[in-house]
Amino acid sequence: MKKIMNKITHKANMLAVRARTPLTNNRGEGFVDTAIKILMAVVIGALVLAGLYLLFDQTVLPTLTQRIKEMFNYAG
């Protein structure tokens, strides 16, 4: 009888170990980290490009256009 109880206990322990192993596995964690890093890079890049566009559109380009017109203004 003790031998049968030991077998049942052993099988129950093995079942518990097999059920717990996938839950404690963290092998796929790197994919989530990589996706977050890529998303952060895209968002930061978009913000930098938007800032540069605003800077060039309102500050640099009007001044540049005015200087080019003054440079090629032969009448004055």
Automatic annotation (TrEMBL):
Identify the keywords attached in UniProt to this record, alphabetized: Membrane, Transmembrane, Transmembrane helix
- What are the TM regions of this chain, as residue ranges? 35-56
One Pfam family, please name it: DUF6133
Reading the lineage from the top rank, the first entry is Bacteria
The protein's name is: Flagellin-like protein
Q: Which organism is it from?
A: Muricomes intestini
